[in-house]
Every structure is written in structure tokens, then in C-alpha cells.
């Protein structure tokens, strides 16, 4: 593949990613939430009970920062912690009924915003984009692992 084409694809990907992130951040702030709060609640809403580490990996927030966000969400009654009986080092996080009700209200709107970003793009093109981005992500992860 031409170096120029790879570079162009990279630049377009980065610009698109920035624009998408800004649109999503705007949507989430319109719901009166911070992106980190929403991301954690969304992970728990869709995946159920997770460990702090699993939440951190799902939302791409480091474990040091995530504790602060979890504390705030717990004080608001939107999630709760529970200790693992087999391993005291493991802490589970789960969404509360109040948190679920909040997500039942705001997630459909959020999903609509995402759907609108892809409106007018052929389903086949979206599937191709998914497959290409997965391949690039896997390759980048492998190269990072090879460096370590």
C-alpha cells in the first residue's frame, strides 16, 4: 500500500474520531453528565456486574482515575460496590436500579445521536469500516506487544 494512502487514511481516521468524540461529548453533556460517568454507567448497563479492572478496560480509563469517578457515582446512588467473597482484592461494581432508570431514559437518545452520525451511509460500508478498523486495531496491538 502506498505510504501516502496509509498516511491519508490515518489523518482521516484521527479527524473523524475527534469529530465523533466531540459530538458524543456534546450529547452526553446535554444529559447533564460527564463522559467518564456516562461511559462507566453504560458499560454496567449493558454488561452487568463487572470488576473495577473490567470497567477500567471497558471504558479506557486507568484504574487510578476510575476510583474517583466510581466514588462520585456511588454517592449519587447510581452504582454500588460489592466485595468478592473468594478474593478480597477484587471489588465488583454494578448499576443500581436508580442508575438503570437513568440509563433507560438517556441511552435511547444517545443511541439515536450515534445512529444519526451513520445516517445515509450504506450498511455494507459500515460493515467494511468495522472490519477495517478491527484489523488496524489488532495490528497496532500486536506491534505494541512486539515492542515490549
Automatic annotation (TrEMBL):
<keyword id="KW-0805">Transcription regulation</keyword>
<keyword id="KW-0238">DNA-binding</keyword>
<dbReference type="InterPro" id="IPR023187">
    <property type="entry name" value="Tscrpt_reg_MarR-type_CS"/>
</dbReference>
<dbReference type="InterPro" id="IPR039422">
    <property type="entry name" value="MarR/SlyA-like"/>
</dbReference>
<protein>
    <submittedName>
        <fullName>MarR family transcriptional regulator</fullName>
    </submittedName>
</protein>
<dbReference type="InterPro" id="IPR036390">
    <property type="entry name" value="WH_DNA-bd_sf"/>
</dbReference>
<dbReference type="InterPro" id="IPR036388">
    <property type="entry name" value="WH-like_DNA-bd_sf"/>
</dbReference>
<dbReference type="GO" id="GO:0006950">
    <property type="term" value="P:response to stress"/>
</dbReference>
<dbReference type="GO" id="GO:0003700">
    <property type="term" value="F:DNA-binding transcription factor activity"/>
</dbReference>
<keyword id="KW-0804">Transcription</keyword>
<dbReference type="GO" id="GO:0003677">
    <property type="term" value="F:DNA binding"/>
</dbReference>
<dbReference type="InterPro" id="IPR000835">
    <property type="entry name" value="HTH_MarR-typ"/>
</dbReference>
<dbReference type="InterPro" id="IPR011991">
    <property type="entry name" value="ArsR-like_HTH"/>
</dbReference>
<dbReference type="Pfam" id="PF01047">
    <property type="entry name" value="MarR"/>
</dbReference>
<feature type="domain" description="HTH marR-type">
    <location>
        <begin position="6"/>
        <end position="138"/>
    </location>
</feature>
Amino acid at each position: 500500500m502506498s505510504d501516502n494512502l496509509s498516511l491519508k487514511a490515518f489523518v482521516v481516521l484521527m479527524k473523524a474520531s475527534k469529530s465523533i468524540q466531540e459530538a458524543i461529548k456534546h450529547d452526553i453533556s446535554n444529559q447533564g453528565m460527564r463522559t467518564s460517568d456516562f461511559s462507566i454507567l453504560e458499560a454496567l448497563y449493558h454488561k452487568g456486574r463487572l470488576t473495577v479492572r473490567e470497567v477500567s478496560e471497558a471504558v479506557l480509563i486507568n484504574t487510578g482515575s476510575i476510583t474517583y469517578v466510581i466514588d462520585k457515582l456511588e454517592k449519587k446512588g447510581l452504582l454500588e460496590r460489592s466485595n468478592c467473597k473468594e478474593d478480597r482484592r477484587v471489588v465488583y461494581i454494578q448499576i443500581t436500579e436508580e442508575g438503570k432508570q437513568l440509563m433507560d431514559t438517556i441511552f435511547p437518545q444517545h443511541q439515536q445521536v450515534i445512529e444519526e452520525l451513520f445516517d445515509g451511509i450504506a450498511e455494507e460500508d459500515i460493515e467494511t469500516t468495522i472490519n477495517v478498523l478491527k484489523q488496524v486495531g489488532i495490528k497496532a496491538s500486536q506491534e505494541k506487544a512486539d515492542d515490549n
